[in-house]
Amino acid sequence: MIETLGRTITIRPARRSDCRAVARMIEELAKHHGDVPLISEDALRASVFSTEPWLTILVAEREERLVGYAGLVRGFKLQFGQRTLDLHHLFIAPNMRGKGIGRQLIDASVNTARRLDCTELTVGTQSHNTAAQSAYAACGFAKRQSAGGVKFVMDL
To answer: Which strand (E) or helix (H) includes residue 136?
Structure first.
């Protein structure tokens, strides 16, 4: 927990009741990146709280109001038998940025990865987003270039 302006920020796993607020933040982040947000509150709830969840959401809460989230997606390096975790989304409400909440969400993500016996936590950012790159480096991430190669995608 951290204090911001005399108020405590708590990082915790998302609850079902958080899905509306998290979906709104996901929409805000998508629009910021020029994407058309398609996630619904129900789809988010099903992806996080099903018997086989696709992702984990950690939230930052201040006075019972969500002010940020981290979306964590599980991965696996099959050839090495290694679990991985990707910090797929990190969002902090604009009026709460620069107060250490991102770092606190990243620290909680690291702890989640360790609890899941992951060998690495990854995060990506756009090549021109040098502010995010600097922030991730300050939190202990090392910049690595992609192994390269061609990636094929099949829309289903």
So the answer is: helix 130-138
Around Cβ 155, how many Cβ atoms within 10 Å? 3
Question: Worst-scoring range by mean pLDDT, 43-52, 82-91, 145-154?
Answer: 145-154
* 55-62, strands of its sheet edge to edge: 2-4, 7-13, 55-62, 65-77, 82-92, 118-122
The pLDDT, as a whole number, for residue 115 is: 96
User: 105-146: per-residue pLDDT in tens?
Assistant: 999 999 999 999 999 999 988 888 888 888 998 999 888 766
What tokens does 31 get? 């629009």
Strands 55-62 and 65-77: antiparallel
Residues with Cβ within 8 Å of residue 2, at least 6 apart in sequence: 8, 9, 99, 100, 101, 104
C-beta of residue 14 within 8 angstroms of C-beta of residue 71: no
Find the length of the chain: 156
